[in-house]
Structure formats: C-alpha cells, structure tokens
Amino acid sequence: MTKKISLHDFQSYLAARLAGTGDQTAAGLLGIQAGSEYWLLDLADSGEIVPLTPLTTVPLTRPWFAGIANIRGNLYSAVDFSAFLGKEPTPQNASSRLLLIGTRHGSNAALLVTRMIGLRNVEALNAEPSDPAAPAWAHESYSDNEGRRWKKLKVRELLADETFMDIGV
After folding, report:
1. CA distance linking residue 113 with residue 83, whole number of Å
2. N or C end of the chain, less CB within 10 A?
3. pLDDT at 28
4. What is the Cα–Cα distance from 60 to 62, expressed in whole angstroms?
5. What is the CA 159 to chain-centroid distance, rounded?
6. pTM of this prediction?
C-alpha cells in the first residue's frame, strides 16, 4: 500500500532535494506576486501554499489584516501583503493564495498574495543595490531579464517586525 504523506512533508522533502542539487539560494527561491510587486522567498521559509479559503473578519484591526483562516482545523492570521506594503488590497479571487509563512517559526501567520509565480533561480537574476530605507525584511532586490524587479522577503525578520505583529487599531 502506498504511504501517504502530508503536503508539508512533501514540501520539506522537495526543499531538501533542491538543496542537495547545489546551492539552496540558487534553486530554492519561490516567487510570489503581491499587488503589482514581485517577491522572492527562500523555499525553506515559504511554508505551505493553499488556495484562498473564506476569511473571518476581525473587528478593530488594521485595514491590511485580512482576517482569520481555518486551514484543516488550525487558525491562521492572514495579512493582505499588498495592503500591508501600502499598496492596493489583494483581490480575493481564484488566483489568490494564502502562503503559510509562520509555521516553521512557531507562528500561525499567513500572507494573502495575488498569485504564486513559481520557483526562481537566483543565478538568472541580477542583484540590485540594497535600499537603505527598506525594512530589515526587504533589503535585497534583484531584476530579471524581462525587466521585473524582485524583492527578497526575509520571513524571520518580517515575523519579528513589530508593525507586522501589531494588527489592532
């Protein structure tokens, strides 16, 4: 009988396999789109990707706090990443996704993103000068051969950011 594994176990296995094929940063970057911006995350930090489920709104929270999501019986606080960045709110449609970023770091946090782009190879990107005004979780940036600018999201630093964790108005 075939052994069943969870999606999280499969993603961990995939990240380990990608890491084993060479430099993790070269093969293990996940691309996402938040509003009109493109972001990269280390695959090991990206967490599980789930289709958008109904979100329960929470009163007296910041406009960028999308609500609470119930994912297989576990509650996750969902932040509209585009709105958190001060951009337009993410449309909640079939291409929107929840990226469960906090599980690995002991937090049930999720990012509501416009869409998943897929795996990216940092060797195919050109490093851009870092932005000293950017928060600690978004210093690195890259450009690709199509002229798109990618920012690298450092999940641990984002979860430690007081602004990100302060959802109350």
Report:
1. 10
2. N
3. 80
4. 7
5. 11
6. 0.82
Q: Are 84 and 64 in contact (CB under 8 A)?
A: yes
Nearest C-alpha neighbor of 115 from the set 89, 140, 136, 97: 97
Answer positive or negative: Cα dihedral of 75, 51, 95, 127.
Answer: positive
Tokens of 65: 């706090």
Report d(CA 133, CA 139) in Å as an integer: 8
CA distances from 143 to 38, 43, 49, 164 (A): 10, 19, 24, 26
Q: E strands, the chain, where?
A: 29-34, 37-42, 48-51, 55-56, 65-71, 74-80, 97-100, 109-113, 115-120, 126-128, 141-143, 149-152
Q: Which residues pair with 151 in a beta bridge?
A: 39, 141
Average pLDDT for consecutive 10-residue bins of the chain (169 residues)?
60 58 59 97 89 96 98 96 97 96 89 95 91 93 94 96 94
Distances in Å between the Cα of 32 and the Cα atoms of 22, 75, 96, 138 are: 22, 22, 10, 14
- Are 27 and 18 contacting, i.e. CB atoms less than 8 angstroms apart? yes
What tokens does 10 get? 């499969």
Residue indicated by tokens 């009163």: 59
Strands 55-56 and 48-51, sheet pairing: unpaired
What whole-number distance in Å separates Cα of residue 103 and Cα of residue 44? 11
